[in-house]
Amino acid sequence: MHTRLDIGDVSVDIHFKNIKNVHLSVYPPTGRVKISAPEHMTVNSVRVFAISKLQWIKSQQKKLLAQPREMPREFLERESHYLWGKRYLLELHNAKGKAEVSVTHKKIVITSQRPLARDGLSALMDDYYRESLRAKALEFVGHWEKRLGLTVNKLFIQRMKTKWGSCNPAARNIRINLDLAKKAQECLDYIILHEMLHFFVPNHGPKFVELMDQHMPHWVEVRRKLNATPLSHVDWTY
Description:
alpha/beta; 11 strands; 4-stranded mixed sheet
């Protein structure tokens, strides 16, 4: 069942599901509010819950609206692109052989037999980001598997509209946002640990915070850094 409530100037989408706890989310870029609630709850009960969280909701919406956005990449010579939090200038080469992306000290170089349209260049970059992200993510997963004494069955990489990562504890699967390849590597490490700890604790309560503090004492600062970086220019409609 799905319904919508207006609480003052805040609209809330409510989805009733076969779940145990209430989940509140505020999504970029405009601060859309969604509440997933157990099927046994009434609309009025959800309204009371939303009112109790109204100050927090407005605070999150304000942060999202103030957050900088990436400009769409045009894939022109000397355009800025990012890899692992570092800025590179784009260089386009034409040469025989397979189209590929390479990285030097200050440049990201795309080489192809003939000039490519923007979509072709973008697809090559996404492939490079995906390969780089998977390799580094598997390193971090292996580290935390040993540290936490658990196994991740599958790691999925995709362009996610509203999250940096998600997980399925029952299946022992993790999904991470492709755009993490553009952020500092410690941000990827933080997201992987975050999702793997959800295998133990399903929510973000005191026990979850305790585990984060134990395994990554500086995680709050890393999260702040990640959330302060520009969001992707993609349409975040969800």
